[in-house]
Input
Amino acid sequence: MSRIAYVNGHYCPHNRAAIHIEDRGYQFADAVYEVCGIRGGKMLDEEAHLNRLDWSLGELQIPWPMARRALQVIMREVIRRNHIRHGMIYLQVSRGQARRTHAFSKHMTPSLVITATSTSRPQNAQTLPQAVSVITRPDIRWQRVDIKTVALLPNSLARHAAQEAGAREAWLIDGEGKVTEGSSSNAWIVDQQNRVHTHPINGRILNGTVRQALIRLAQKEGIEIIESPFTPEEAYNAKEAFLTSSNALVQPIDQIDGHKIGNGSQSEVSQQLWRAYYIENQIAP
Ligand code: PMP
Output
């Protein structure tokens, strides 16, 4: 079955989908994106993704490529045409195509690309997946990573370093020696009093959609969340550590920079948060 992409008003075979060489997304990373998880054919946290898209576009003064409702219809159509049950939908909006010059016109027509990918059925979806390891790397990104732009080279290099070290993710360390987030995920630890720590929302992290959901759910579950930066040393001594993203959802971590986290396999708080997320989203196995 061939994959179908949506590009500027057309559904076309994925391997023939193309954008002009003078698209500002290509030349200046002048583009924003969203990746939305799909489980059982349904988009997860759809409204949160569209709200964040609205934030990213607004901060860069890129107009919406079409009405929000129309975009939702096309996203569903891309999922349908690609027969996705479990997977991800990728959406990118660039400022559009123009002769290459740094300054831009206010009157450009944005480019819109939407693709979708299947992943294999998540195993035993009610329990957390197998834990992964993490390394730390310096956070060398710009100061507006709250805008979800496609300028991901520092993230990509950090992730490559993680891969070379046999780890799944790189946690990024800012100039004050604090963990900001992962190369493509938010970072969390659970302290000895079962309090959950994660970096606060400012220009230094992306406000993850799964992050937003877990903070809301933690309140219902009576779990205390402390939105305050933590150090790698605090992470090494944590009872639990995990990461969140639309791709991994809630992923436990058993090793950071070679330090074993907690007593191995216990991840009670992470598990409780995951269950709450799973139930709220009626994730079907
Ligand atoms: N931080 C970064 C840098 C990311 O790329 C992602 C993944 N989009 C996240 C955090 C997590 O965001 P979300 O939960 O919306 O996938």
Observations:
- The pocket of 4'-deoxy-4'-aminopyridoxal-5'-phosphate is lined by residues 35, 155, 181, 184-186, 206, 208-211, 244-246 (CB under 6 Å).
- The chain has a mean pLDDT of 95.
